[in-house]
């Protein structure tokens, strides 16, 4: 069973590659969804590794290499195809930010993380979250206005996400839901059911605001020097290993 987490990591790579093919063929909305599917695979491999108690150095290296393609190269191509090709060499430079800063982020993670290490938070924005934010922003804009977001919004967002990846702003893991705890907290249950309903009805409109809340949470923690308490209990070595 130890190969199953690596299989999910390989699916992450496959969907990232497929997203690039979709971009070459001009299907940028499909590419955005494939980037999101790749991020789901990236999130599940750590949970599966934890469940079957499997961890290895191979998983760490394979995960980072796959992330560089799915969440570094694919978003860079996405930016070039949808908008930045208009600016010539400057557009090439801007489009490279997710890839270049994402690889720096991954390299720093590989130098500081080790198998069996526990850490209450990630240092800097995880590269999958950067890619998902860009993809959901494009889906959000297309749903509202029927077009790619204007460069006056897309360029600052690209630069901001690149900065967050190499920053020291702490980002905790996405919260893990416990059915037992949720049932004893009706307000939380109502919020979760409401979000599920909204996602089911209009996923392209809901995901980007959720990502904005996630970005703001890390910035708030950094500003007020708050410890991400939830992550201290929830994040274990396998999840660190598979989520750079």
Can you offer a commentary on this structure?
- There is one protein chain.
- By secondary structure, the chain is mainly α.
- The chain has one domain: Up-down Bundle (Four Helix Bundle (Hemerythrin (Met), subunit A)), CATH 1.20.120.
- It is built from 12 helices and 2 strands.
- It has helices at 4-24, 28-51, 57-82, 89-95, 97-112, 127-145, 151-166, 179-183, 186-201, 203-224, 229-234, 237-242, and strands at 122-123, 170-171.
- The radius of gyration is 18 Å and the shape is globular.
User: Remind me, CATH topology?
Assistant: Four Helix Bundle (Hemerythrin (Met), subunit A)
The residue ranges in which pLDDT falls below 50 over 5 or more consecutive positions are 227-243
* Percent strand: under 5%
Give the averaged pLDDT, no decimals. Answer: 82
What is the structural class? Answer: mainly alpha
Architecture in CATH?
Up-down Bundle
Helicity range? over 70%
Q: Report the CATH C-level class.
A: Mainly Alpha
How does the overall form come out from the CA principal axes?
globular
Task: Please list the strands of the largest sheet in the order they lie side by side.
Answer: 1-2
Largest sheet: 2 strands, antiparallel
The tally of structural domains comes to: 1
Ends: how far apart? Answer: 23 Å
Order of secondary-structure elements: HHHHHEHHEHHHHH
State Rg: 18 Å
How many beta-strand runs? 2
Number of H/I helices: 12
